[in-house]
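User: Hey, my collaborator sent me this sequence without any context and asked if I could get a structure. I don't really work with proteins. Can you help?
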Amino acid sequence: MSQNPAFPRTRLRRTRASAWSRAMVRENHLTPADLIWPLFISDGENIEEPITSLPGVSRWSVDLIVERAKEARDLGIACVALFPNTPADKRSDEGMEALNIDNLMCRATKAIKDALGDDIGVLTDVALDPYTTHGQDGLIDSNGYVENDRTLDMLTKQALNQANAGADIIAPSDMMDGRVGAIRDTLELAHYHNVQIMAYAAKYASAFYGPFRDAVGSSGTLKGDKKSYQMDPANSDEAMREIALDIAEGADSVMVKPGLAYLDIIYRAKSEFNVPVFAYQVSGEYALVAAGAAAGIGDRDALMMEKLIAFKRAGCSGILTYFAADAARLLHE
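Assistant: No problem. I've predicted the 3D structure and written it out in structure-token form, which is a compact way to encode the shape of the chain:
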């Protein structure tokens, strides 16, 4: 880096003195197209179910999910991400509801694509935790251990089911070894050449997921933890290995989850691989901002936007965030 001439020849505050100047030299920019809006699907019709642990976030029935997708389109948001709250009577140890062509995920995907076509992208989550009685992302053995290879067969069938419903991006969040390659091969054989894979490549065993599990109904069913397949928060070199493998297996983009506590992982991923990198600003991160603003520690909008621009500064192509609609409205002002 070149050395600046000494003060007073160099006054770094010169370019900060006016709003127009700050805008002119701004290094990173956030737009609505950088945002992906996670939406939770509920059974029924004309139903909105507020999620207590996620203030301002609700589950929506399929008909109202379509309205949220239209809202996202109108705000310039590029994509919505769907997550189902599967009814308890449709959950099983094997998670077979994931393969139902008429499950909540598939119905919502079809409804959005029928209404909006290519005006907005639809990202669908591939993992079994919304469909299992034990809350794990894969199939378990008699000791409760999540079996990698047996789970792959279910995940590939789940991914194909979602592609058949019209998904634009398949996003495996399960963290099984080899799942990106298995899904890519399945999509290719089915002639879904343009269906993208956004791999949850570096998904950590985090304490920030609690409200999400409430939203998809798995918090009360989860038996044990997910540390045997989600990553240790202490590790960063391992994340680079995970990302490299997923790219080699056919991922079009990769995700780091959670986001804010892992900005170093985002930066390394972008620097080392130069592929589209996304962050998931997860439910716990969102809820902490909401709680902090409610307690008076700071302005909600200012806290929201500062955190979102941090992801762009670290190297993100985009961010999955429950703030998406609110942030997009601010960006339009």
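In plain terms: The chain has a mean pLDDT of 96. You can pass these tokens on to your collaborator as they are.
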